[in-house]
Amino acid sequence: MAAITKQNILVTGGGGFLGKAIVTRLVEAGENVRSFSRNFYPELKSMGVDQIQGDIGDNSAIIKACNGIQTVFHVAAKPPPWGNYADYYRTNVVGTQNVIDACNSQKVSKLVYTSTPTVVFNGTDIEGVDESFPYPARYATPYSKTKALAEQKVVKSSSGNLRTIILRPHEIWGPGDNHIAPRLIARAKRLKRIGNGKNLIDTTYIDNAVDAHLLASEKLEENPAISGKIYFISQGEPVLAWDMINAFLKAAGLGPVKGSVPYRIAWLTGAFLEIVYKIFRLSGEPYITRFMAYAVARTHWFDISAAKRDLGYSPRVSMEEGLRLLEDWLKKT
């Protein structure tokens, strides 16, 4: 991969799993990197990263962060699976609009936005579709809805002055994961397979997700015609969802999932728990939600031909190598 021309780069959510991995790669490439996050991260300081703390819903904070920046990787988001819609909207929609406005006011030339394939989840199996697949009429989660609204804003903001690109990496995992693997490991003793176990899903190893982001920035510079476009990103190798879950557990030294629950029962249980949590305003999150049930029991994999063609993307780290690296990391944590 060709090196990105040396520049001043901002990564929103630079302390998160993907954000930190992007920051690390940029620092290794000799770039001048700034991170915008709610918190201060000593590990970023040790890399010489300029850190600005603030709320992405605060426009003035983002304007300050974008001062003197040429490229923004907008990774920050409120993640799934559970939360108040207003909180999701403020972070994912208002926050993204603030980033766009700051890019325009501070004359940032490129914006790479991290979205998600869940913006097209419609409750049914999704097999090998490309970026023309439509948004659903209704969303089961505020995360999916607000990420869809946000990516539409990024598409519309594309102009001669601000080139934009939207990536939809699916189920990012690997060393440093603070979401998928830890949740599965914490629930290992109570986990049961949901559905018949025959559903295929896409995943993305962390280094491959970083590759896609850096390639997007590079190609956006070379080819303005791709500005405003959306790309699915994955391993390009759909796997059985429960085989992958068991592989994560094996990497952590745990046994496979035993027992099963029909998808419909899990979905209805999730719907019931969501109602209970909303009515009684319970803290934390339900053990199961409709989103979780869908994510692990339905088929959802995507055609990444466009990313290969336009971005030169190709999964560099295989599933097998990624699992080995994940196991090594888990042994050290």
Please tell me about this protein's structure.
The chain is an alpha/beta fold. The protein has a domain at 8-172 and 203-234 and 302-315: NAD(P)-binding Rossmann-like Domain (Rossmann fold, 3-Layer(aba) Sandwich), CATH 3.40.50. 43% of the residues lie in helices and 17% in strands. It contains twelve helices and 15 strands. It has helices at 17-28, 42-46, 59-66, 85-105, 142-157, 180-186, 206-222, 241-251, 263-280, 290-297, 305-311, 319-332, and strands at 8-12, 32-37, 50-53, 71-74, 110-114, 126-129, 163-169, 172-173, 193-194, 200-201, 204-205, 229-233, 239-240, 260-261, 300-302. The strands form five sheets. It has a seven-stranded parallel β-sheet with strand order 3-2-1-4-5-7-12, sandwiched between helices. It has a two-stranded parallel ribbon with strand order 6-15. α2 (42-46) links the parallel β2 and β3. It is globular, with a radius of gyration of 19 Å.
Overall outline: globular
**Could you spell the SSE succession in H and E letters?**
EHEHEHEHEEHEEHEEEHEEHEHHEHH
What share of the residues does DSSP label as strand, in percent?
15-25%
CATH architecture assignment name of the domain at 8-172 and 203-234 and 302-315: 3-Layer(aba) Sandwich
> Overall mean pLDDT score?
96
Helix segment tally: 12
User: Would you state the CATH class of the domain at 8-172 and 203-234 and 302-315?
Assistant: Alpha Beta
CATH superfamily of the domain at 8-172 and 203-234 and 302-315: NAD(P)-binding Rossmann-like Domain
Q: How many β strands by DSSP?
A: 15
What is the helix content?
A: 40-55%
How far apart are the first and last residues' alpha carbons, in Å? Answer: 31 Å
Q: Give the class from helix and strand content and strand pairing.
A: alpha/beta
Poorly predicted tracts of residues:
none
**Order of strands, widest sheet:** 3-2-1-4-5-7-12
Query: What is the CATH topology descriptor of the domain at 8-172 and 203-234 and 302-315?
Result: Rossmann fold
Q: What does the main sheet amount to?
A: 7 strands, parallel
